[in-house]
Specification:
- The chain is of the alpha+beta class.
- 65% of the residues lie in helices and 11% in strands.
- The strands form two sheets. It has a five-stranded mixed β-sheet, with helices on one face. Strands 1-3 form a two-stranded antiparallel ribbon.
């Protein structure tokens, strides 16, 4: 009953609870006195029931017993329960059993020692010995509990330090992977602009402005572990617009319209996928093809796919697709760190198309 208390009472609540215990003791003391006499000395029961003095002292005894048990077991269990939060149930139950055995015998010994009157007084030298033994056991138990609490705090501190180290390591890995992408596509973009300078100076100027926007975006990505999906899509639109200047009619684009779901993705995660789609799906085809970027809401996240026209050939095996240092392996590694999923990058091929995608 005492252990079911959810939390120790506050200082404001304690006087009322002690008053309730006092009332309970005053009312129950004569009853327990009568039961005690009935079981041990039934001949004295009529005189007891008709004696105001005996009933009064039994009420006093009842108060002593009620307060002793409430303070020892009621308050003790509620304080102990708060101290053991977070420990395995087996440890909690063992400590509770030991504590309640000690607290019960000590409460009986204290109550019996403090009750000089009444019909169920248990004042004997035996209870003084019980008090001494229980005090020693209680001290040992308190030391054990203190050691458990100290150990728990030390484990929690160690876990927090390990989590912080893992987070810092993941950030460093993500930045290292991201830095591999930045120079790669910029060189390709500069080659595109260089080819346009003589043929179409206006287009070259437009693409230089786009390239400046892309530079600003990549610099911002360097300082952030993630970006809004809408920002990533704007970057990809600029990149594909530059590629369209290069391939002209051979490159058709289907890009998402309207605002994207408010989710975050690793910076520069889409660019390698669309670059891969252009390079392997469009560049080698005389008639060109279409690159399609789709974004679909998925619960509280989003599903992102990049599809390109292809000859319908089966995709090569993972060792060929995900070579160390290459774009797809880079994307998969960053998505794995960002999402926590072991295989976050989806691949599929069908009649005339190839698709890569991921969920965030």
């Amino acid at each position: 009953m005492f252990r079911l208390q959810s939390a120790p009472p506050t200082l404001q609540e304690l006087p009322l609870l002690l008053a309730k215990c006092t009332v309970w003791g005053l009312l129950s003391g004569p009853v327990f006195g009568a039961v005690f006499l009935l079981l041990n000395e039934p001949g004295r029961l009529p005189a007891y029931l008709t004696s105001p003095r005996a009933l009064f002292f039994s009420s006093i005894d009842g108060v002593v017993w009620a307060l002793t048990f409430y303070i020892g077991l009621g308050l003790g269990n509620s304080l102990l329960k708060r101290s053991l939060l977070g420990y395995p149930p087996a440890i909690q139950n063992t400590i509770f059993v030991v504590f309640n055995l000690i607290a019960t015998s000590m409460a009986v010994a204290i109550a019996g020692t403090l009750s000089p009157h009444g019909s169920f007084t248990l004042r004997t030298p035996l209870y003084l010995r019980i008090l001494v033994i229980d005090s020693v056991l209680g001290l040992a138990l308190s030391l054990v509990i203190r050691a458990f609490i100290h150990l728990k705090l030390q484990v929690e501190r160690t876990q927090a330090e390990l989590q912080l180290q893992a987070l810092e390591t993941a950030r460093a890995q993500a930045l290292a992977l991201q830095s591999q992408i930045n120079p790669h596509f910029f060189f390709n973009t500069l080659n595109t602009i260089s080819a346009l300078i003589d043929d179409d100076p206006a287009a070259a100027r437009r693409n230089i402005a786009r390239l400046a926007d892309m530079f600003r975006y990549t610099l911002g990505c360097t300082h952030n572990s993630s970006v809004e999906l809408e920002q990533e899509l704007d970057f990809v639109r600029d990149y594909l617009a530059i590629e369209q200047e290069r391939f002209r009619r051979r490159l058709k684009l289907e890009l998402p319209g309207g605002p994207a779901p408010p989710v975050r993705v690793p910076g520069l995660i889409l660019q390698p996928l669309v670059e891969n789609a252009v390079k392997h799906g469009i560049a080698g085809r005389i008639e060109g093809g279409t690159v399609t970027v789709r974004v679909e809401p998925l619960g509280s996240g989003a599903r992102v796919t990049v599809r390109n026209t292809s000859d319908g050939e089966a995709l090569p095996g993972e060792p060929a697709l995900f070579r160390p240092g290459h774009a797809l392996e880079n994307v998969r590694a960053r998505l794995r760190m960002f999402t926590g999923r072991p295989d976050p990058l989806r691949m599929a091929t069908g009649d005339g198309w190839t698709e890569f995608g991921f969920d965030v």
